[in-house]
């Protein structure tokens, strides 16, 4: 493809401009072969095989972009490896998005990939606005024909078209835009707080009509899914945004955004224990998927907060009770061990908690088995005392957490946060918030009065269990041998914490988990492949708690 070759739409009519020569209609093609009329081998007996050549990449990309720009969806589709899907998508591009003019400029191919930029004009009911973006295509060899073809994906047309159901639309917006503000009235924007982008999009979709605003004209991606909010790409004419107050604290949010950037894949959420109000949510990378709310990952030893509560509720131990903490334990046919096979002689449940002794918590199975509830007791405590597994009405899409009934060796694994247990950073932050408050209050991002949604409910912890959990979490955060002490140094009291690391199939290094509270703020973080809880996730949580 010649540098500087461009495809243009002039006066609403699609033309190709390359090297100053105009082409139209069928003259764009050397047949429908991706510019290669010799799709068979020299003997003519079989289609070509092997990687596409540089010339094939250049010519196929040029012909496809030309057909797209020329408004010839059927011809463009025949230059892809999925002509049925590609044809309808290319046809919908101009009409659905109201593209009145465009210029497509290819870049230099890199192997089989060809980047390109689109400079378009969107026109709707007499209002026009420029629209620019970059995308890329990949050329592959057809499996049956041997022809060089564009590997079809919706993202060829726009990089944010990620599913076959997603489409480009221009028109009067479905809902008015919203001016989201934090709890003190400070405006929250995706530009300043990138992690809030999917949150703000969902808030607009759900509450825009209730916030008192008026609609404008926009270009957006219609996701085609009720669980995925539409994405605004361009505003042609602004409506009047309505103001929507959230529970976010801008200062805590800023600290959370900064903290997660230290790691490649990290998420954190913060909650006010006395109310359940969500004060911050941040992810790195900050994408359209809100991992801190929607992630479903094994929480590792942070689950020992729930396991300890289960043990106290079932009369197995109190914080001062003597418990066994051997270096290894055989449970239901599987051997479990502590980190570096440490053991604690003549220790208490508090000592086992602050040092995160796996074997002490797993050995609770024997007593619960005698009662016939070993496989269900943890899930019961999680649901009835911590709200995990109930349906949370946060105000945006969020996972509820899951502690299902277990069997076999999954039961001892679940007692230390492995097995089939899944939680998000928000779920684990709620564990600390519940301990600090003495009872579960469902986390929320906007007032339930906006849509009269029902919050999940749970029984308050008994005074003995709440006090015991706070004592153990404080020991983990302050004792000289506490696993969370180093990370929580400098965090104000009253404070408590719990570390965790979760082994994930296919990962050489475990995920790092950490949850804690300071005063009336609780938080939890997960750093993928971060190792020990105090090493990676701990500093993230500490930075957020200090901002409160």
> Any idea what the radius of gyration is?
29 Å
Oligomer: single chain
Tally of helical segments: 16
What structural class do the secondary elements suggest? alpha+beta
Extended strand count: 21
Return residue spans where pLDDT drops below 50 for at least 5 consecutive residues: 1-43
Which range does the strand content fall in?
15-25%
Q: Average pLDDT across residues?
A: 90
Shape: globular
Explained architecture:
The chain has 548 residues and is an alpha+beta fold. The chain is 28% helix and 24% strand. The chain contains 16 helices and 21 strands. A seven-stranded antiparallel beta sheet has the order 3-2-1-4-5-6-7. It has a five-stranded antiparallel beta sheet with strand order 14-13-21-20-19, sandwiched between helices. The protein has a three-stranded antiparallel beta sheet with strand order 8-10-11. The longest helix has 16 residues. The chain is globular, with a radius of gyration of 29 Å. The relative contact order is 0.10.
Chain-wise SSE layout:
Layout: E1 6-10, E2 13-18, E3 21-23, H1 54-69, H2 73-77, H3 83-97, E4 99-106, E5 113-124, E6 127-141, E7 148-150, E8 167-172, E9 178-181, H4 197-207, E10 217-222, E11 231-237, E12 242-245, H5 250-260, E13 266-271, E14 278-284, H6 291-294, H7 304-313, E15 322-325, E16 328-331, E17 334-337, E18 344-348, H8 349-354, H9 358-362, H10 364-371, H11 377-386, H12 410-415, H13 425-437, H14 463-478, H15 485-488, E19 495-502, E20 511-518, E21 521-527, H16 537-547
Parallel strand pairs: 9-12
Antiparallel strand pairs: 1-2, 1-4, 2-3, 4-5, 5-6, 6-7, 8-10, 10-11, 13-14, 13-21, 15-18, 16-17, 19-20, 20-21
């Amino acid at each position: 493809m010649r540098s500087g070759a461009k495809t243009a739409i002039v006066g609403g009519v699609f033309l190709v401009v390359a090297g100053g020569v105009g082409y139209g209609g069928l003259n764009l093609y050397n047949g429908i072969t991706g510019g290669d009329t010799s799709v068979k081998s020299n003997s003519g007996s079989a289609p070509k095989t092997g990687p596409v050549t540089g010339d094939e990449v250049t010519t196929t990309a040029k012909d496809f972009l030309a057909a797209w720009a020329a408004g010839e969806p059927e011809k463009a589709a025949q230059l892809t490896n999925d002509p049925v899907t590609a044809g309808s998508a290319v046809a919908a591009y101009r009409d659905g998005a109201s593209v009145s003019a465009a210029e497509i400029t290819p870049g230099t191919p890199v192997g089989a990939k060809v980047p390109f930029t689109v400079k378009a004009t969107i026109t709707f009911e007499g209002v026009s606005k420029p629209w620019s973006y970059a995308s890329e295509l990949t050329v592959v060899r057809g499996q049956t024909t041997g022809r060089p073809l564009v590997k079809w994906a919706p993202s060829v047309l726009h990089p944010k078209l990620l599913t076959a159901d997603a489409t480009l639309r221009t028109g009067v917006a479905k809902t008015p835009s919203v001016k989201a503000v934090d709890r003190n009235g400070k405006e929250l924007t995706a530009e300043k707080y990138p992690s809030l982008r999917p949150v703000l999009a969902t808030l607009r979709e759900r509450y825009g009509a209730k916030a008192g605003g008026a609609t404008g004209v926009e270009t957006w991606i219609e996701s085609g899914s009720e669980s995925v909010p539409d994405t605004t790409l361009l505003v042609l004419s602004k409506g009047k945004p309505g103001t929507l107050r959230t529970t976010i604290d801008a200062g805590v949010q800023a600290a959370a955004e900064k903290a997660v950037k230290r790691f490649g894949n990290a998420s954190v959420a913060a909650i006010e224990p006395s109310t359940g109000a969500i004060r911050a949510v941040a992810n790195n990378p900050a994408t359209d998927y809100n991992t801190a709310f929607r992630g479903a990952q094994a929480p590792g030893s942070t689950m020992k907060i729930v396991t300890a509560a289960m043990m106290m509720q079932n009369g197995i131990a109190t914080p001062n009770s003597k418990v066994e903490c051997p270096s290894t334990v055989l449970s239901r046919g599987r051997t479990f061990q502590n980190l570096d096979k440490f053991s604690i002689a003549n220790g208490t449940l508090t000592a086992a908690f602050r040092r995160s002794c796996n074997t002490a918590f797993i050995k609770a199975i024997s007593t619960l088995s005698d009662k016939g509830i070993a496989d269900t007791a943890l899930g019961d405590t999680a649901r009835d005392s911590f709200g995990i597994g109930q349906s949370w009405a946060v105000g945006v899409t969020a996972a509820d957490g899951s502690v299902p009934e277990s069997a076999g060796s999954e039961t001892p694994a679940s007692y230390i946060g492995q097995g089939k247990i899944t939680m998000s950073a928000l779920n684990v932050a709620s564990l600390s918030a519940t301990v600090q408050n003495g009872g579960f209050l469902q986390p929320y991002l906007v007032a339930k009065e906006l849509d009269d949604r029902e919050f999940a409910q749970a029984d308050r912890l008994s005074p003995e269990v709440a006090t015991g959990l706070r004592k153990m979490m404080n020991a983990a955060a302050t004792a000289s041998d506490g696993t969370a002490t180093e990370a929580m140094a400098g965090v104000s009291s009253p404070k408590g914490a719990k570390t965790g690391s979760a082994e994930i199939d296919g990962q050489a290094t475990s995920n790092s988990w950490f949850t804690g509270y300071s005063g009336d703020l609780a938080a939890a973080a997960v750093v993928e492949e971060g190792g020990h809880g105090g090493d990676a996730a701990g500093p993230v949580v500490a930075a957020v708690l200090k901002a409160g």
